[in-house]
Amino acid sequence: MESKNIILFVTDLHGDVSVYEELFRLGAGMNVKAIIIGGDITPFMMGTGEENIAIQRDFIKTYLIPRISKFKKDHKKVVFLMFGNDDFKVNYDLLIQAEKKGVLKLLHQGIHKLNDWTLRGYSFVNPTPFFIKDWERKEKDIEKDLKEIENQCAEKSLIVFHAPPINTNLDIIYTGEHVGSKSIRKFIEKAQPTMTLHGHIHESPEISGNTMDKIGETICINPGNAKIILIDLDNPKNIIFTK
Fold first, then answer.
1. What is the DSSP letter of 93?
2. Of 1, 7, 56, 126, which one is least surrounded by beta carbons within 10 A?
3. C-alpha of 159 from chain center
């Protein structure tokens, strides 16, 4: 890409260091403005015990934050990220501390500028059958949260949702069922941000055959599990998978 307004996006890495290292390598070697990580950033845990919480906390403390800090120091580029439903919320304090130190920027319910774009994020997902419930909310509560920013989506707005909107190419599980959020779809239909980035449903791009959909004029993207993509913000439909 010749554009100088490129971002890298990846979601659902689940602690895969090889993907993280590829992400930082690409972020350094290309004309990339920023890296965006859309949730489920720590190792996947089958259960909610203290030992599992400690494993995720150790990953954030000993690998992720130092690695992002080194990337920022070496390349003077910003990393935006947030938790997803498989990340224990009790460890969120580590990310808050890192943001206060200028290491990274937290997307969840925040607002940031990237050139002339406005970035926001929302970690909560609609209810799932999975173990960790820290980042789940009922649809009515998601709708209430998003109502607060419904009229704040100016031109060139990008919102990172961990969950995808329902009844799209982005929310189909192996059974063929659509399991995305009704409230997120309703928000997109009304607010019409320029672009939304999603994850959570790993297999949806494989099942639907598409990583992209449109709701009105909003471009919606779910690249799938741990798939790094380049997005040209000057031409948002221009998406390139790195492998």
1. H
2. 1
3. 9
Query: For the structural domain made of 6-241, what CATH number should be given?
Result: 3.60.21.10
Q: Report the C-alpha gap between 103 and 96 in whole angstroms.
A: 10
Q: At what angle do helices 17-29 and 65-75 cross, to 10 degrees?
A: 10
Instruction: Compute φ and ψ for 119, nearest 5 degrees.
Output: -115, 135
Kindly report the number of other CB atoms within 10 A of residue 243's CB atom. Answer: 6
List the chain pLDDT tens, one digit each, 243 residues: 556 689 999 999 999 999 999 999 999 976 899 999 999 999 999 889 999 999 999 999 999 999 999 999 999 999 999 999 999 999 999 999 999 999 999 999 999 999 899 999 999 999 999 989 999 999 999 999 999 888 888 789 999 999 999 999 999 999 999 999 999 999 999 999 999 999 999 999 999 999 999 999 999 999 999 999 999 998 877 788 876
Spatial separation of the C-alpha atoms in residues 126 and 183, rounded to whole Å: 9
Distance between CA atoms of residues 242 and 22, nearest Å: 10
Domain ranges of the chain: 6-241
